[in-house]
Amino acid sequence: MSEDVVVIHTDGGCTPNPGPGGWGAVLRQGEHVLELFGGEAGETTNNRMELTAPIMALEALKRPVVVHLNTDSTYVRNGITKWVLGWEKNGWKTSGKQPVKNVDLWQRLQAACARHQVEWFWVKGHAGIADNELADQLATKGMQQAIAGAG
């Protein structure tokens, strides 16, 4: 693995869904590791948290780089690699002519990706992949801190 590649694992979730949520990201470049997390105490969704994690990770990068971004969300991976250009072309409407959900986050993710050369990978969640498990733990921590801070 090249020293120039930043490997990112992200996760997000809510308990319950919708409900309070959290997101987490682990960024690795060579020997450098950065852990990020956050959350929302109010009502959000799993999908919004799954989208927020890669946005925050990519926005944290200080210069354009090659990124290998790992997510356990097929919604995020398929959305950014397959669906988003069609949505944009159709005025942010789905093929069924409905407004795209989470359009604010999809647009922000597109902008964050544009600065970098991002390759997307789907990984199975809770399958023992260390950085995916860590991203999950960070998402839980983000949710817990958001709830505690709102109390």
From TrEMBL:
Predominant subcellular localization, coarse grouping: cytoplasm
Cellular localization per UniProt: Cytoplasm
EC number annotated for this UniProt entry: 3.1.26.4
Cofactor(s) recorded in Swiss-Prot or TrEMBL: Mg(2+)
Catalyzed reactions per annotation: Endonucleolytic cleavage to 5'-phosphomonoester
A GO biological-process term: DNA replication, removal of RNA primer
Alphabetical list of Gene3D superfamilies matching this protein: Ribonuclease H-like superfamily/Ribonuclease H
One Pfam family recorded for the sequence: RNase_H
Cofactor note: Binds 1 Mg(2+) ion per subunit. May bind a second metal ion at a regulatory site, or after substrate binding.
Domain of life, per lineage: Bacteria
Class of enzymatic activity (EC top level): hydrolase
UniProt binding sites for Mg(2+) 2: D11, D136
InterPro entries documented for this protein: RNase_H, RNaseH-like_sf, RNaseH_domain, RNaseH_sf, RNaseHI
Single GO term (MF): nucleic acid binding
Gene Ontology CC: cytoplasm
PROSITE patterns given in the database record: RNASE_H_1 (PS50879)
Annotated keywords: Cytoplasm, Endonuclease, Hydrolase, Magnesium, Metal-binding, Nuclease
Record flagged with keyword Cell cycle: no
UniProt keyword Phosphoprotein present: no
Residues at which Mg(2+) 1 binds: D11, E50, D72
RNase H type-1 domain location: 2-144
Function of the molecule: Endonuclease that specifically degrades the RNA of RNA-DNA hybrids.
Oligomer status and interactors: Monomer.
NCBIfam families registered for this protein in UniProt: PRK00203.1
Family note: Belongs to the RNase H family.
Protein's UniProt name: Ribonuclease H
Species of the source: Nocardioides marmoriginsengisoli
